[in-house]
Write a structure and sequence with these properties.
Low-confidence stretches: 1-13, 670-677, 721-738
Shape: extended
Largest sheet: 5 strands, antiparallel
Number of strands: 30
Distance between the termini: 136 Å
Strand content: 15-25%
Structural class: alpha+beta
Mean pLDDT: 81
CATH topology of the largest domain: Heat Shock Protein 90
CATH class of the largest domain: Alpha Beta
Strand order of the largest sheet: 4-3-7-6-5
């Protein structure tokens, strides 16, 4: 036995220096693998960038060439031709009046042929002496633009191109100018100008390949045209403050702020909105102007991961080789130690081979070696998948596994040549079993030698029948989920109806009793508590229903005009008593730039503001609650973006609870729910409504100093002649309104309590009331009597409200009369009001019934003169 070795019952173990050598080799292999992986990571990205730039540069050059040919040169030649016209020279020389018919004919013809925005002529003083006209447009004749570079350059004898925003029209375009000469060819007497349409470059940008962005840049890097509108008139290059002030003072870009883009085109690659893109810039034949293109380029993860796999496989292979070499050294030592060690080494080798054969034979996927179109070797799983014994497959043509000769030829034509360049991975094909049935499979192939496919290819075949079945089951589950969503919506509608009907009775009876002559102690001590408790319960029910509708995605928005400031007063006035009781300062501030009327869903906006203001009042013990509304910066010709801010000096929110503020059924601190009350749904619903309307909500808070909630909403400006939206949110009290003066009202309602409530309300208001319990009885009562208005429930026995209204409206076609019908229903889901109006009803009221709203609508549909005429007709008939 050699010195430095240790003898055991299993033979001789190598010396410690050999173990250190093995560890150093393995460390070197691991280091080389990591370095190779890093090299692949950076090299693949570099190659991808290089390849894309080589593709992008010709496209950009060709694009710039087209712009120079079809825009710059075309319009330059056109304005030069216009400058040489006799009609142009005569008016510039003062020999013909301004806008004379001959000149206008030339200018208007040029405008139509060239399809441009304006064509006009300026005299030597820079005053427009002739301008093309079109119906509805204002002529520039008489205006002076001697400060514009396109005039000064042309008067210096040089045709000029000047992209800018019009001083008068405030519309962007490219100004092409050329000097006009008289008899003296050395001194211009005026200037001819062609202004293109604002979309002249945008139309060419639209022809770019998909995904590519384009920008037209001024010499200072200001974006004049772009495939993305929000990049317009922003700086794509760094600009010194002095130069920026000089550009703004030139009025070339009107009053644009010229803010910086989130990226700079000085770099060869830029990032925007999480997208990485390569940059290519080419100059145009417009003094210093350039065209830039951005082409998205994702990181080449597929190639990197594939090469990493290859490197890892190679590293593993080298590691196995090193380990095997080390093992051979050990085996050699064992052979020297004796025959027993040699036998154990041979046994270990046989075990290793057996393991590899076992792995090959017991693999869960089919593995087949193909040479010259025949199966040279395969594993057991391959035979099991296709119903063959392993020996049956060997030396047979692989073509028999395909559905037919045509399918096999198509596979060879599409994929076999790929093995010379790369591997084939996860190709789906239907293969044929021994019994003739087809099964879906995936095929992955690799050539043993890509340079010589005759050496054979190895294919991995996997049966994906179960996966296909799972996909079909998933599609069926999706259909079932959609059906469940519809059922959930129907359940919400029914639950809303069933809850609102008894709540209407509770709130209505409490209100009715509060207006009777009951003792003050009972009225305030008991009935008022009942009313407040019912109101609180109704609020909780509405929150839960709103939350359920948001989760189901069944909220629908109305687009109706409403008064912003009036809406804010409706939100703040009910909050004033609470603020006074707690000694808080309740303030409201609306910026003058906020429009008076906007289009949107007033009810949803009021719900958001009520939640936020009520929340601030709840958690503020002293100080103030401030509601502020202002208009965000933007184009005033577009829909304004309104910013709402609700600030308070309350307890604030601890940073640990910031992530939970907008979660459902939660408050910043669980102890708050016991101390201040609430379902924890208000902020969650507010967030859902804001996002539904296309806005964004967030907050800022400091514990002990207060909280500010912000949200933005895009609301379109409403036309002045549209009627304002009336808020139909149910209040919980009735107010005194003018008497009904004997008008006849027909009430169709099957709930006894609701009949008593609405009858008492209308009787106290001076109306004469007739009640029926079904739609059929309502139709019969209308046919047999004279009524000024009908209050119609929707869900009733025998005949529902929709059918009853349809029959009444059908009969009115013959009589030529029209009785107002107001829907009075507990269906208060999104779309119910629209459904009632489409059915022929004149208005809609949701339960719990708001007595003030009912009497207001009756006063609207039943003017005093109409009621008196109805009473007279009834008296005459009797």
């Amino acid at each position: 036995m050699q010195p430095g070795t240790v003898e055991t019952t299993q033979g001789t173990i190598h010396s410690l220096p050999d173990r250190k050598l093995l560890r150093s080799r393995l460390f070197a292999i691991a280091t080389a693998t990591v370095l190779a992986a890093l090299f692949v990571y950076f090299t693949c990205d570099y190659v991808a960038l290089l390849f894309q730039r080589r593709q992008q540069q010709p496209l950009t050059e060709n694009f710039a060439r087209e712009l120079n040919t079809f825009i710059v040169r075309y319009y330059t030649d056109s304005v030069r031709n216009l400058a040489t016209r006799e009609e142009t020279a005569i008016v510039c020389a003062g020999a013909a009046p301004r806008d004379n018919p001959e000149l206008l004919r030339v200018l208007n013809t040029a405008r139509g042929v060239l399809d441009v925005a304006l064509v006009y002529v300026m005299d030597a003083g820079g005053t427009v002496v002739g301008c093309s006209t079109a119906p509805g447009e204002v002529s520039l004749t008489g205006n002076t633009y001697d400060f514009r570079p396109y005039f000064t350059r042309a008067m210096a004898g040089t045709p000029w191109i000047f992209p800018a925003i019009g001083v008068t029209t405030h519309v962007k375009g490219v100004y092409f100018s050329a000097p006009v000469y008289g008899l003296d060819k050395n001194k211009p007497i005026g200037t001819a100008v062609i202004k293109t349409k604002a979309t002249v470059f945008d139309e060419y940008f639209a022809t770019l390949p998909g995904g590519m962005e384009a920008l037209l840049l001024s010499p200072d890097g200001i974006v004049f045209s772009s495939t993305k509108q929000h990049w317009l008139f922003r700086a794509a290059l760094p600009i010194a403050p002095d130069r920026l002030d000089e550009i703004k003072g030139s009025r070339q870009f009107s009053g644009q702020s010229l803010a910086r883009l989130p990226f700079s085109l000085l770099r060869s690659t830029v990032s925007y909105n999480g997208i990485r893109a390569t940059v290519a810039v080419r100059s145009l034949e417009i003094g210093g102007w350039r065209i830039a293109t951005l082409t998205p380029l994702p990181f080449p993860w597929l190639a990197v991961v594939f090469l990493w796999g290859v490197i890892l496989a190679l590293g593993s292979l080298v590691t196995v080789i090193v380990l095997n070499a080390h093992r051979e050294q050990q085996l050699t030592g064992q052979v020297r130690a004796g025959q027993d060690a040699s036998n154990r080494a041979h046994a270990a080798h046989r075990d290793s081979v057996l393991e590899l054969e076992t792995i090959f034979s017991t693999s869960l996927v089919g593995i087949v070696l193909v040479r010259d179109g025949q199966i040279a070797n395969t594993n057991k799983r391959m035979g099991e998948m296709f119903g063959y014994d392993r020996d049956e497959l060997i030396d047979t043509e692989v073509r028999q596994l395909f559905s037919g000769r045509r399918a096999f030829r198509r596979f060879v034509r599409r994929h076999l040549h790929q093995l010379m360049d790369s591997n084939i991975e996860q190709v789906e094909y239907d293969l044929r079993k021994k019994d003739g049935t087809l099964i879906p499979c995936t095929l992955s192939g690799k050539a043993i030698d890509r340079a010589n496919l005759a050496r054979g290819t190895v294919w991995v075949v996997e049966d994906i029948s179960r996966r296909k079945a799972a996909e079909r089951e998933l599609e069926q589950a999706r259909s079932a989920a959609e059906a469940a969503s519809v059922a959930k919506g129907q359940f919400l509608a029914n639950m809303s109806h069933e809850i609102r009907t008894p709540m209407n009775g509770i709130i209505g009876l409490a209100n009715l009793l509060l207006h009777t002559g009951m003792p003050e102690k009972i009225r305030k001590g008991h009935l008022e508590l009942i009313r407040r408790s019912a109101i609180r319960l109704m609020t909780i029910i509405n929150d839960i229903l709103d939350f359920s509708k948001l989760e189901a995605g069944r909220f629908e928005l109305e687009q109706r005009p409403f008064d912003v400031r009036g809406m804010l007063r409706e939100v703040m006035e009910p909050m004033a008593p609470t603020a006074r009781r707690k000694g808080l300062q309740l303030k409201m501030d609306v910026e003058s730039a906020v429009p008076g009327q906007v289009l949107g869903d007033q009810t949803k906006v009021m719900q958001i503001l009520t939640n936020l203001v009520d929340n601030s009042l709840k958690f503020t013990r002293k100080g103030f609650v401030h509601l502020e509304v202002r208009r965000e910066m933007g184009n005033r010709d577009q829909s304004p973006l309104l910013l709402f801010r609700v600030a308070d000096s309350g307890i604030g929110i601890l940073p640990a609870y910031w992530d939970k503020v907008f979660e459902s059924f939660s408050q910043a601190d669980s102890s708050h729910s016991r101390k201040f009350g609430g379902t924890g749904l208000g902020l969650s619903i507010s967030k859902g409504l804001v996002e539904l309307m296309g806005g964004r909500i967030w907050f800022e808070s400091e514990p002990g100093k207060g909280t500010c909630f912000f949200f933005t909403l895009p609301l379109a400006v409403s036309a002045e002649n549209l009627p304002l939206q009336q808020d139909t949110a149910a209040t919980c009290y009735w107010q005194d309104l003018p008497q009904g003066q004997g008008g006849r009202i027909l009430v169709a309602e099957d709930e006894y309590i609701n009949t008593v409530l609405i009858g008492a309300l209308l009787t106290q208001a001076g109306y004469r009331v007739t009640t029926v319990r079904s739609g059929r009885e309502a139709v019969e009562a209308w046919r047999g009597g004279v009524f000024d208005c009908i209050l119609m429930d929707i869900q009733m026995p025998e005949m529902d409200g929709y059918e009853a209204v349809a029959r009444i409206r059908e009969a009115e076609v013959v009589t030529g009369e029209h009785v107002p019908i107001i829907a009075m229903t507990a269906y208060a889901m999104s779309g119910d009001r629209h459904k009632c109006l489409l059915a022929g009803m004149d208005e809609y009221i949701a339960k719990p019934i708001d007595g003030t709203l009912v009497l207001r609508l009756l006063r609207q549909f039943l003017p005093t003169a109409g009621i008196q005429q109805s009473v007279a007709r009834e008296d005459k008939a009797s």
